[in-house]
Specification:
- The chain is α/β, with parallel strands linked by helices.
- It has one domain.
- About 30% of the residues lie in helices and about 20% in strands.
- The chain has a seven-stranded mixed sheet, with helices on both faces. It has a three-stranded mixed sheet with strand order 4-10-9. A two-stranded antiparallel sheet has the order 6-12.
- The radius of gyration is 18 Å and the shape is globular.
- The chain starts with a strand and ends with a strand.
- The mean pLDDT is about 90.
Length: about 280
């Protein structure tokens, strides 16, 4: 029997019941011959993206303390599995200057979970990992037998950066354990972790991506121009928003890490799976 981890990630949202029911109906129920282990990574205290603080307040799950949050999460998600693991810890990152965007936390939470998984299990016991945001639902059933050797991204219906699937590519990630380890090595190449914060290494510089095919993507000159702008802006103490987000910069590095290991960042294979953002 396959053993698959479902990582449910994000700051506490009031949509967790809908998220839980959807995970059960679209992932767990259709794959009845799989043993699922649930890991939830969230934070009680956190700083929202600057320009989205009002929206964040509207969708926040309010509770009085960490224990209450833990119990709410446990009582909500315990229908998914007998193996529920809830991690509530502060997490942030520093790039050496003020930065108003927090999207990178989604990727750093995935890396942080590897520590917690290995603290209780052995990551090599598992076949694959499905990482999904706690404010997202899937419209179609997900067949875990379609998970092969690529690092898969199920994209959202809008948003995102031109040249990066033209949509929110952080709704749901799917990867085997080999690619999870590659993902974590890429994080550690760019950041180091200390006291609940990720700090940049000297490798946090722009490089061009290596994409699977040209669908959704632009010519090399487009990415080179993004890189020139990013490398100037990250040194400018008066700039807190970049032409390229840190998450896109990370994806660029990840595509290179995957390529050297005979894999690709793949937004095509699961494009039949549609999604909905519950915050809209």
């Amino acid at each position: 029997m396959k053993k698959i981890i479902i990582n449910i990630i994000g700051t506490p949202r009031k949509f967790i019941k809908e998220n839980c029911e959807n995970i059960y109906e679209k992932i767990i129920k259709p794959n009845h011959d799989v043993s699922f282990y649930i890991f939830i990574h969230t934070s009680y205290n956190y700083t929202a993206t600057t320009h989205k603080q009002k929206l964040d307040n509207d969708k926040k799950l309010y509770c009085n303390n960490e224990n209450e949050l833990y119990n709410i999460l446990l009582n909500t998600y315990n229908k998914l599995s007998n193996n529920i693991n809830i991690i509530i810890e502060p997490i942030d990152f520093d790039i050496g200057k003020h930065h108003s965007w927090k999207h990178m936390l989604l990727y750093l939470r995935q890396h942080r979970l590897l520590y917690h998984i290995n603290n209780k299990y052995n990551i090599d016991e598992f076949n694959s990992v499905i990482t999904i945001r706690n404010d997202v639902i899937l419209i179609n059933n997900l067949d875990v037998n379609d998970i092969k050797n690529n690092f898969y991204s199920i994209i959202g219906p809008g948003g995102g950066y031109k040249g990066y699937a033209n949509g929110d590519f952080d709704f749901c990630f799917i990867y085997n354990i080999k690619n999870y380890k590659i993902f974590c090595k890429c994080i550690e190449y760019l950041w180091y972790y200390s006291n609940n914060t990720y700090y940049p290494t000297n490798n946090l510089l722009y490089i061009s991506p290596i994409f699977l095919i040209n669908k959704h993507h632009q010519r090399k000159e487009y990415y080179d121009e993004l890189g020139n702008k990013f490398n100037k802006e990250i040194k400018d103490k008066h700039t807190d928003r970049f032409k390229l987000a840190l998450s896109e910069l990370f994806i660029n590095h990840l595509t290179n890490f995957l390529y050297t290991n005979n894999s690709y960042w793949d937004v095509i294979s699961f494009e039949n799976i549609k999604t909905q953002l519950l915050t809209i």
